[in-house]
Amino acid sequence: MLTFLGNIFARSQNGAAASLDAEAQPVNEIVVDGAPIFPLSGHLSLHEGYPILDWGAVYEWAVTVQPDSRHSQVWTEVEKAWLLHMRMALGPQFRLRQTNAAFLLSSLEGHVATATLTYMERTLNRVVALLDGKRSIDHALALGCPLRQ
To answer: 113 by DSSP, 3-state: which?
Structure first.
């Protein structure tokens, strides 16, 4: 469970919230050195106008990426790409923001979004501490990625 949480939030801990470029367009494929191209658009389906990603297909592709230490980075790229597709579906009032530990897709004002992301990071650290008895997510992230079998 701890490594699963680590993968979901696998970004280093050193940055303030940043809004991604409002004009950033979603990508249709994920290109990563050491892996075949992942055709993201081929694994997206629309349900009532919202993009639904086949996460099983993402997993099958992600485990082919070598070395294993890159699985977190690959998963993060897919999350970001999918969230950009979702942002486009939700409309121009939505922004995708990120810290080094989380993404937030919302229509919240900047300062409220920043506070929300700060809360998300603090809560993650608390969960990690409860599950592992450690005070830092860095330790949890060092345990590995759940994509390894």
So the answer is: helix
Coarse DSSP helix, strand, coil percentages of the chain, rounded to the nearest 5 percent: 50, 15, 40
pTM: 0.74
Per-residue burial over 61-89, b if 16 or more Cβ lie within 10 Å, else e, is bbbebeeeebbbebbbbbebbbbbbbbee
pLDDT digits (tens, 9 = 90+) for 31-89: 988 778 999 999 999 999 999 999 999 999 988 888 887 888 888 899 999 999 999 99
CA dihedral 10, 13, 19, 20 (to 10 degrees): -50
